[in-house]
Amino acid sequence: MKYNETETLVKLRRMASRHAAPYSTLIVAMGEHWEPGCREAVMDMRDYAQKCKIDAQLIIERDRCFNWGDALGSMRNMGYRHALLAGFEYLMYVDNDIILPEHTLVKLLSHQLPMVAPKVVFATGETYGLEVPKLADDGGLVMAGSVVLSCLLAKTVVFLPWALADFWGNALGDDEEYHFTKFYMAGHMPFVDTDIKAVCLKPPHFPLDKKPKGEPLLELVK
């Protein structure tokens, strides 16, 4: 790749400007195959944050899975790398099956914690093998052992130890309890804001999506 001085300077200035903006957040959606109403809910959350003068941007990480979850970890690895490289202070993961209040991001940011998530419940009442904290509603902030990664908000510096290596090394990325042990070793514990409830409509689905070569890796959703 040929070095372009002008392009590089523009990129560095953009990153410096974003770093100067507190609470800047990259929302990373896992896959384009949205359940009805979920894309709109995530975009409403982004738009609400922008109205509050927060630099919130959304990208949709393209699917890389042949079967359910077999490359979900790789998709999440790309998500935090995008956030680090683009200079965002925070990263928020969302899945394509989630319905959440529009104020979710703003409320979570207000806690100024390294790692926090809303209370996530499944519409069917099942857990599908995922670790879902069984917490009462409207109980404020509660420390949890692990949380569902959809709607997890984390400071990007949390991922710095894995900037040059994959955090989700096995590519799967669907065993929240196992992977949170890595966060513990780095000194981080997740909190849950039980005043916010997000609803997963059903387990996410990630079929392989073949896109033309040459598309940009990070493309903000308008």
How is this structure best described in words?
The chain is an alpha/beta fold. It has helices at residues 5-19, 38-51, 72-85, 104-109, 176-185, and strands at residues 25-30, 56-61, 90-95, 98-99, 115-122, 141-143, 153-155, 191-200. Strands 1, 2, 3, 4, 5, 6, 7 and 8 form an eight-stranded mixed sheet that branches. It is globular. The model is unreliable at 204-217 (pLDDT under 50).
Give the key terms:
8-stranded mixed sheet; alpha/beta; 222 residues; globular; 5 helices; 20% strand; 27% helix
Short description:
The protein is built from five helices and eight strands; from the N terminus they run αβαβαββαβββαβ. It has helices at 5-19, 38-51, 72-85, 104-109, 176-185, and strands at 25-30, 56-61, 90-95, 98-99, 115-122, 141-143, 153-155, 191-200.
Helix/strand class: alpha/beta
Largest sheet: 8 strands, mixed
Query: What count of helical segments does DSSP give?
Result: 5
What's the overall average pLDDT, rounded?
80
- Fraction of residues in helix: 25-40%
- Number of DSSP-assigned strands: 8
Order of secondary-structure elements: HEHEHEEHEEEHE
- Choose one word for the global shape: globular
Oligomer: single chain
* Euclidean distance between termini CA atoms: 28 Å
Provide the fold topology.
Layout: H1 5-19, E1 25-30, H2 38-51, E2 56-61, H3 72-85, E3 90-95, E4 98-99, H4 104-109, E5 115-122, E6 141-143, E7 153-155, H5 176-185, E8 191-200
Parallel strand pairs: 1-2, 1-3, 5-8
Antiparallel strand pairs: 3-7, 4-8, 5-7, 6-8
